[in-house]
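Quiz preparation item.
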């Protein structure tokens, strides 16, 4: 695989990555790699236990069954503390895991772009016709940016050109889809109006 093919693939990959929603990627990876916490089962069990005790307490009269009611109330207070403690531990663990995954995702998603900038900054994907020394130097500087040789097309410029073309195609697709949606809406509206007019005409006859 030559440098032109490699840089083209990397440029397309960078563009595809730019379309991804980082938060969605984080959630997707989190559901795959973050194991279910054993504490979560304990938390669910405590919540169910609390709900059962609360139902039992609410059935009692505080005046007629004061001792029993007070005992259940103390158990509820104790469960509330345990639930709060486990919830805090789970939340802290999730925050740490999410931060780690977010960092890894950021590195992975930005790696193709950094590979282009660092390892292909001097790479020429195309060589212009040899012997032409009258090529405008400012334009040549843009083509070979940042450290390419004179009368060459650098990898960074080539990747930027691909990104511009793909972005234009994406925008054209979005606009075309919106126009088709508006056209279909207007067509349906006109059809409904025609049907309503026909119905009124038939009714008048």
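Solution:
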């Amino acid at each position: 695989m030559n440098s032109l093919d490699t840089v083209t693939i990397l440029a397309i990959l960078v563009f595809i990555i730019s379309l991804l929603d980082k938060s969605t990627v984080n959630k997707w990876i989190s559901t795959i790699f973050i194991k279910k916490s054993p504490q979560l089962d304990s938390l669910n069990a405590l919540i169910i236990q609390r709900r059962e005790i609360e139902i039992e307490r609410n059935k009692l009269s505080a005046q007629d069954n004061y001792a029993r009611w007070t005992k259940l109330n103390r158990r509820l207070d104790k469960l509330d503390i345990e639930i709060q403690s486990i919830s805090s531990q789970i939340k802290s663990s999730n925050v740490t895991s999410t931060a780690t995954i977010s960092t890894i995702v950021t590195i992975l998603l930005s790696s193709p772009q950094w590979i282009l900038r660092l390892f292909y900054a001097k790479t020429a994907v195309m060589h212009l016709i040899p012997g032409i020394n009258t090529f405008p130097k400012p334009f040549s500087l843009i083509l070979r940016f940042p450290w390419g040789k004179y009368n060459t097309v650098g990898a960074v410029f080539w990747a930027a050109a691909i990104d511009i073309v793909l972005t234009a195609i994406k925008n054209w697709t979005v606009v075309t889809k919106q126009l088709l949606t508006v056209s279909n809406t207007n067509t349906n509206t006109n059809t409904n109006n025609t049907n309503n007019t026909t119905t009124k005409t038939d009714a008048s006859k």
